[in-house]
Structures are given as C-alpha cells and as structure tokens.
Amino acid sequence: MSVWKIWKSGFDRWEQTTSGYLDQALRSPAILGPTGSMLKAVMNTKSTTGKVLSRTWNAMGLTSRDDQDLAMHRINQLESQILDLQDEIRDLREKA
Q: Which of the two residues, 48 and 54, has the higher pLDDT score?
C-alpha cells in the first residue's frame, strides 16, 4: 500500500470524525447565539466606520468610495456605448 493511500485513509477517517463533531457543535445554541451577536456587532461597527469615513472624506472635499464606484460605473457605461457606436460606424462603412 502506498504512502498516499495510507495518508488518505487516515485523513478520511479524521475528516468524518471531525465533521460530525463540528456539525453538532456549530448547530448548538450555545455557540450560535454568541457568534451571531459578535457578527452583528462587527457589522454594525463596520457600517458606522464606513459612514464616519465617508463624512470625513466629504468634509475634506474628497470623494467617498461610493462616489468613486458610481463614477467608474458611469465611465464603463460610456465606454461601452462608445464601443457600440464604433462597431455601428464600422458596419455602416463596410456596407457603403
């Protein structure tokens, strides 16, 4: 039997045992409750931080990330329209 097959069979047994334990543990309300609370706190902190940073950038006269994303979206739309118009012009020239 090769080293790989020996290692693989051991890993498979370890994975089955571990996955059963983790599945049971992660469904436990004792773990889900505090973990959910922590996640909610982290997301609230992230949201508040984003708002504060956006206001700070605006107060300094700089654009926020959302403003930059919107500008990039509009630039991409314009670029797409220009490419479409170039294709139409090429098609019209070929027909003429």
A: 48
